[in-house]
């Protein structure tokens, strides 16, 4: 049996709708993108949603729209996908890495406060990793005290909540991904969501070459034969209407998809709770985890991890993953510690031990297969495989 790490949930409705833009001839950003944005806004309870070509371009646009540029410093967790830091680099600003809390895989707010207290920081980019919101109440408290902008990296954060507030609703904006490994997928694609109308309007302009109005607006209004004004330097970060159409049907079954993902996460919680060396995901009270990935830590404890211990258990984790792969069971490390990657390591003269907790998460995390259409027989095969390797 072959078990993938993840796969998007597509059905006949997705197949039917994706043909409609081809039939209409409107394949660039158009009516389906607009409908997708409206549905996303309704689901997340965030008033304004702006579709983009992917989450990375959404992050880039958010930084540009907030005036982040050369000479500015933006705090970002070191344990995240490289795109978070890359978006900061695109603007000419400098990413300032912050270590994480190993139990949540998210920003360590105590270390965050230490950084902003002693450095001239312009913004914070918290990441809601693997579907669990960062500690946004505390992060926003710090941001208000030091007058900092907040861009939430919600690439993994669809249907992630703190109380009745969705990820992306706390800071100046939130940026989401619809990559195939995410809960809902349009292939590639992203969304920027914000509570501020003027900010949304600015981003809409920036994503479309800086045009004063979109092609769809020109098409629906009189005088559409004349080109719009271009008073702003913009980018071509638009989503196609084929992707927008797919987004519409994905949103229509989003609740079902999320119910299934959380059900499978509960299966893992129950089946693996007594396994040695597997520290399972934790969800703080009042938080709702979306389980974009089910990521455990291969370690005896969260505390006291030294470089030597990390190296020791990294070898064992890698062997576990190798043996599961030989059984047809796909696994992945959670993500990487960005400060160890070649570009950032060399440019900023960083050492592995500079952010030891992020290094531990990089070397010891293990993501297990999870997708909404996962059958009980497939799940059982994964658990039996883990049992076989451990025994």
Structure description:
- The protein is an alpha/beta fold and 391 residues long.
- It is 42% helix and 14% strand.
- It has helices spanning 12-24, 31-44, 55-65, 82-90, 109-118, 136-146, 197-207, 215-220, 241-252, 254-272, 307-326, 342-347, 356-364, 376-390; strands spanning 48-52, 73-77, 94-98, 100-101, 106-107, 123-124, 149-154, 161-162, 165-166, 173-177, 190-194, 278-279, 287-288, 294-298, 365-368.
- The chain has a seven-stranded mixed beta sheet with strand order 1-11-10-7-6-2-3, with helices on both faces. A three-stranded antiparallel beta sheet has the order 9-8-13, with no helix packed on it.
- α4 links the parallel β2 and β3 (94-98).
- α5 packs parallel to α6.
- The longest helix has 20 residues, at 307-326.
Summarize the SSE layout with pairings.
Blueprint lengths: L11 H13 L6 H14 L3 E5 L2 H11 L7 E5 L4 H9 L3 E5 L1 E2 L4 E2 L1 H10 L4 E2 L11 H11 L2 E6 L6 E2 L2 E2 L6 E5 L12 E5 L2 H11 L7 H6 L20 H12 L1 H19 L5 E2 L7 E2 L5 E5 L8 H20 L15 H6 L8 H9 E4 L7 H15 L1
Parallel strand pairs: 2-3, 2-6, 6-7, 7-10
Antiparallel strand pairs: 1-11, 4-5, 8-9, 8-13, 10-11, 12-14, 14-15
What are the defining features of this structure?
391 residues, alpha/beta, 42% helix
